[in-house]
Amino acid sequence: MANDPSNPLIIQSDRTLLLDVHAARSEEARSAILPFAELEKSPEHIHTYRITPLSLWNAASAGFTPGDVARVLQEYSRYDVPRGVVDGFADVMGRFGLVRMVEAPVNPAVPLSPDIPEELLLVCDVEAVAAEIAASKTLAKYLYPVSGGFGLRLTDRGTVKRELIRLGWPVKDEAPLLGGEYLDVPLRTAMLDGRDFAPRDYQTEAARSVVGDGGPGSGYGVIVLPCGAGKTVVGMVVMSLLKTNTLVLTTNVAAVHQWIDELIDKTGLTADQIAEYTGDSKSVAPVTVATYQILTWRPDKEAEFPHFRLFRARPWGLIIYDEVHLLPAPVFRVTAELQAVRRLGLTATLVREDGAEADVFSLVGPKRYDVPWKDLEAKGWIAEAVCAEIRVDLPENLKIPYAVTDQRNKYRVASENPLKRAIVRQLAENHPEDRILVIGQYVRQLEELAKDLGAPLITGKTPNGEREEIYGSFRRGEVRIIVVSKVANFAIDLPDASMAIQVSGSFGSRQEEAQRLGRILRPKKRNSYFYTVVSRYTVEEEFAANRQKFLAEQGYKYSIQHWTEEELNAAPAPRLLPERTI
Q1: Same domain, yes or no, for 72 and 119?
Q2: Please, what are the averages of pLDDT over each run of 10 residues along the chain (582 residues)?
Q3: Quick one: 509 and 461 in the same domain?
């Protein structure tokens, strides 16, 4: 009860919840607030959650009432709950369900509109809300007044939902979903190499949170799990539960091949039941794995997207959006048309640099499952990571050119600081037993590093066959270090990678930092190491700080070290980089 100093939760009037992870019942409280609060930060001692309209609508869609939320807060609050916080829940959550989308009447005596087949009905029982919807110029092109509400085309289902949530009226979608063509997807009990296989408890729990009971409002949503936590397995569990033809969309050809390998290794699907739809091969089967790139290709900016036909190539019963936080805008458009198909989004972070989280909520579905990175680390499901930033001065001959160039070129000059090469070489020498990824943005810099290290290089221009061969050599231990550009940020399975050295990044992208750290988080018997090398007193420090903030919010500590040009050139160079916290 409130005013108990041993309670774990501190509730503030701005709807921020502070969870003391060392207090009694903290785990119990965390589980209780997850349905209606979004995790923002999870460092060592105090985790920060925020109650937002989206989080409350998500809770309402799962059957929570304002009274349920208030009772949870009262139960775990250390102090009295600010009155204004609780009073506002009913207003916000009450918006969910005022507007419903339902199937049009079956065989009505008078059709909604005989000229427009495949219709749905938008129902709103509150006159003022119906008037606001009717007055919306944006919605006017999709809705038309009929008896009982508004009629709309089936293909406009998602677009209408997205526009209504922008007006502050989240739709309760009760229209039916298609079953899709039947396909049995049994999970193996042993993988092809003979090792036992069974989904982890949280993977099964995540899958069931999306599948639900099969009734209205279930069968779609987003799963948020850290990189290395096995999101692909969650997708396979969902497929095994729904037993239907499935279209998987992912980020690149290597990820397509990884999905196919995993499906053959961990399910009873045969090779002829799975197809690849990429720039290299355009086949369709009961399970088809495609890239976002091929779907969004078109001959020119005015042309249609010819490969969108894939969405209608088979009677899909499930579409899986891998790395849903990267869903391209054109695919959002077609996703809006596919609201009758069950949808699963997989991601390590719902942070979108374009701020389109509400679009993911409307078109793919609400977040159904989330777990903090550090929780899985504590249970041994992902590796413990040691993070460090190494700051090195710009060489004297680059300080003036850096000072006088424009802002964008400042970032490139700082990123390509030649002194970083000595740091990378030394880090590689200091970690002789680690499998190392050297990751950067600029090809010229990466070519120099690959030459220094005698390591293979993968960039956007590396043919897919060559990429697969290099990744395979790394997995087999034939190659200890590979140098990669941004192509390795997403959906690449390198389970033995235990160290990453980041020499340049995308202007402070939080999602990129999460993905790069995720490359080394697969569970293993040793710690993983994540080094970022930045130029001191440059814009690169500012961008690095933004990326660090995201990881600090997930509970990862950064040590910061500083090296000068003189120290790097000293002979002999020190074998270990000393801790120089500044």
Answers
A1: no
A2: 80 93 87 83 83 86 87 93 85 90 64 55 91 94 89 86 91 84 96 93 93 81 84 96 94 85 95 92 93 84 81 90 81 78 86 71 83 74 78 91 89 92 91 88 93 92 87 89 76 72 68 57 68 89 71 68 76 44 32
A3: yes
Number of domains, the chain: 4
The residue range of the domain holding 304 is: 201-371
Q: Which of 312, 346, 371 is the last residue of a domain?
A: 371
Neighbours of 148 (CB within 10 A): 15
> Is cis: bond before 35, omega within 30 of 0?
no
Do residues 363 and 402 share a domain? no
Find the length of the chain. 582
Task: Determine phi and psi for 65, rounding to 5 degrees.
Answer: -110, 165
- 3-class secondary-structure state, position 580: coil
Cα dihedral sign for 143, 144, 145, 149?
Answer: negative
Do 563 and 431 lie in one domain? The reply is yes
- E strand map for 86-179: 99-103, 119-124, 144-146, 149-153, 172-173
In Å, what is the CA distance from 184 to each residue of 187, 218, 238, 271, 473? 10, 20, 12, 14, 34
Q: What is the pTM of this model?
A: 0.71
Residue 27 and residue 167 in one domain = no
